[in-house]
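Issue: copy button drops trailing tokens. Both records pasted manually instead:
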Amino acid sequence: MNKNRNQMKITKADIIENIHDEESKISHENIHIVLNSFFEEIKKALGDDRVVELRGFGTFEIRTRKGRERARNPKTGEIVPVETHGATTFRPGKELKQIAWKLRG
């Protein structure tokens, strides 16, 4: 592919427009409300330390990243301590894995 990554990205506005094109009975505003509510529910569940499983798409969860005494700031090279903290992870589902597998094959 000759396109750079910025030309290949899709934004929330693009998703709203694509859904509106396919199902024109739903207004942009209503699609926006539903999509934002969907994202808020995911964030709320993760904030409550729950796993979010979207069958066929993937699973979001918070995993604990162990702290370290001697991490390095990549910008300055300075050695800094890093506390134990949570990190959001995503594991793609079977269907998404199959799409990705075919894409670069």
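Record 2 (pasted manually too):
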Amino acid sequence: MDKKEAKDILAKELELYRNRSYADLLYLLNTQDTMEVTGSSGVVYQLEFHAVWDSKKGGNLRVIGEIDDVGWRAFFFPLTDDFIIAQDGSFIGE
């Protein structure tokens, strides 16, 4: 897996979630979005996005994205990135 390519793809896809409202992201608490993207190298990457409460139910929401190349590494070391969004739409820790 090309880590730079994977990180770039994850950042691009996670940005789409950052552009959504807090209310629009709540569905990720009960399900996850999955997709496959082919990088410019030809490698097929699997992405997963889900959310958890950051500290307390109804508070800040942490949205997590993961990417892997569906190889053995995927089971142990997927690349991840996340962001935390408050109910007012502001981002925490940035």
